[in-house]
Write a structure and sequence with these properties.
- This protein is of the alpha+beta class.
- It has 9 helices and 6 strands.
- Helix 4 packs across helix 5.
């Protein structure tokens, strides 16, 4: 953990300009973005199932508090802190910039090669249910009675003719078994060391794995 913390602190120190652009100079003092990013890293490192459980663990675990630079005498922040900062992090691409700097260090230190990569994909199940699916072209005079058009028994549905009104970006996809509304997750790793070098989440379809593999190769070349 000492080695991980020293690397993280050096990378986050180099991102000070990015943090200054994302946060204003006025207003009340908030939670440092460096602490939030390192807390998310703790969650991934120790497989903590949720942000609520993460905050509970940080409230009494001295190792976690030391890692995120949060004083023992101060109460731990609540899980809503992640929710309130998530849009800002995504808008300024802070987490991705941190990840790219980590990968860049791995390439510089010789931990990641440039000749052998492997790509694996899986599906992220959408929270939208089958009853949220309706035809893309439906009757404008329809009273939007969900119990009417969601009675899909005997009807053939596909991604070209139907869409979820709850999660329009999700697509019906299956890797064996029944098809569910899903998103495609792909991870590129160094074949020699197994280190993750790129992650992509987008539309699930029959060609998403090869499309994302080429896209992630272009991203790695640019690091």
């Amino acid at each position: 953990m000492r080695a991980i913390k020293s690397r993280c602190d050096a990378i986050l120190k180099g991102m000070s300009r990015d943090f200054n652009k994302a946060y204003g100079r006025t207003g009340r003092v908030g939670i440092p973005p460096e602490s939030l990013i390192k807390a998310l890293l703790l969650r991934a490192r120790f497989a903590i199932p949720s942000e609520r459980r993460l905050c509970e663990a940080c409230s009494f675990n001295i190792l976690y508090r030391w890692f995120i630079d949060w004083p023992i005498e101060q109460p731990m922040w609540t899980p809503e802190a992640f929710s309130m900062n998530r849009d800002r992090f995504e808008r300024h691409d802070l987490v991705n910039k941190f990840f790219q700097r980590v990968v860049s260090e791995g390439i510089t230190d010789g931990l990641i090669g440039d000749d052998r990569f492997s790509v694996d994909g899986t599906l992220i199940r959408s929270l939208a249910g089958h009853k949220s699916i309706k035809p893309i072209k439906h009757d404008e005079n329809d009273d939007d009675d969900r119990n009417g058009w969601s009675s899909f028994k005997g009807q053939k549905r596909s991604n070209t003719t139907h869409r979820s009104v709850v999660d329009p970006e999700a697509r019906l996809m299956s890797k064996g078994g029944a098809a569910h509304l899903s998103h495609a997750l792909h991870v590129m790793t160094d074949a020699r060391t197994g280190l993750c070098v790129c992650v992509s989440v987008n539309t699930a379809d029959g060609r998403c794995e090869r499309r994302n593999a080429l896209m992630m190769l272009d991203r790695v070349r640019g690091i």
